[in-house]
Amino acid sequence: MEFYLSALLLGLCLSSMALGIFITMKIFRIPDITTDGSYTLGAAVTAVLLTRHWPVGAVIPITMIAGALAGIMTGLVHTRLKVDALLAGILVMTGLYSVNLSVLGRSNIPLLEVKTVFDALAIFPNPLHNELWVAGLFLLLISGLLAYMLRTDFGIAMRATGNSESMARALGINPRAMKITGLAIANALTALSGFLAAQYQNFADINMGIGIVLVGLGSVLIGDALINWLGVKKIWFQLLFIMGGSILFQMMLAAALSLGVNPNLLKLITAVFVLTIVGIPRLTARRE
To answer: If DSSP states are collapsed to H, E and C, what string results for 130-174?
Structure first.
């Protein structure tokens, strides 16, 4: 049972990243690969500051600002230098590897002897229950703020930019600024996932973000499939389904491991899951 509870907890920790990918992929139609770097950046900044005994409350905004700066860099490369969004993300992600290594100072930092956010907000005697409570609280606050923002005039302008740049420009909206802002918000959310995951796993590692964008993509695709199937229109419920997609994705991986699959094949299984989620609807549409 605890095996699946751990999968649930990891799904909650990664839900923030899924929300970030939802912004870039579903609102702006941008395939942002910066995620791999900003996730590790969030974990690296968290580990360094916590080992230097910074209070958790101060670490959270610094971590999100670091992720936002990574997103702004991708946005500037894409909008100002006219580089394709996919290539811009790859370039920034590649540069972030060196940045993350410089921040960490070595390949990994253990967090076994530091006070984490799960300790600071502990209310249950069972550590796993505390971790579930804290991760759920973070996601409730983040999803609530994001849902509110997307319903404001600013959020509507962001969604309009994603739907049609020419229409947004005609309405007096600056598409460049909106894209940069959207990428900043998305990568700040991704860095927050790194913040939670590093403390849950009790370490930050330079390679922990490799392929993490596939996990977020799979989560968004599962949530999007449920949204389309149920005809969900309200943005608040859409965000809940995206977070649910993150949890379902981790549960599928946990089920595969519980069946005795070699953990060394986990990345391959992740790729196959995402390919299946993407491929089945397309094959079904062709048959129809």
So the answer is: HHHHHHHHHHHHHHHHHHHHHHCHHHHHHHHHHHCHHHHHHCCCC
pLDDT score of 190 more than 80: yes
**Residue 264 exposure: Cα atoms within 13 Å on the Cβ side:** 0
Q: Give the Cβ contact number of residue 135 at 10 Å.
A: 25
Q: Whole-angstrom Cα distance, residue 89 to residue 72?
A: 11
Q: How many Å apart are CA 217 and CA 256, to the nearest integer?
A: 19
Every domain of the chain and the residues it spans: 8-206
Tell me if residue 110 falls in helix, strand or coil.
strand
Question: What local confidence, expressed as pLDDT, does residue 283 receive?
Answer: 61
Q: 189: closest CA among 16, 9, 26?
A: 16
> Quick check: pTM over 0.90?
yes
According to DSSP, residue 263 is labeled G
User: Which two structure tokens, joined as six digits, stand for 63?
Assistant: 């971590």
Phi and psi at residue 2, to the nearest 5°: -65, -25
What b/e sequence results for 10-28 when a residue is b if at least 16 CB atoms lie within 10 Å of its CB, and e otherwise? bbbbbbbbbbbbbbbbbbb
Question: φ, ψ for residue 114 (rounded to 5)?
Answer: -115, 160
Whether the predicted pLDDT of 167 surpasses 90: no
Query: How high is the pLDDT of residue 35?
Result: 92
- Average of per-residue pLDDT across 76-86: 92
Q: Nearest 5 degrees, angle CA 38-CA 120-CA 9?
A: 55
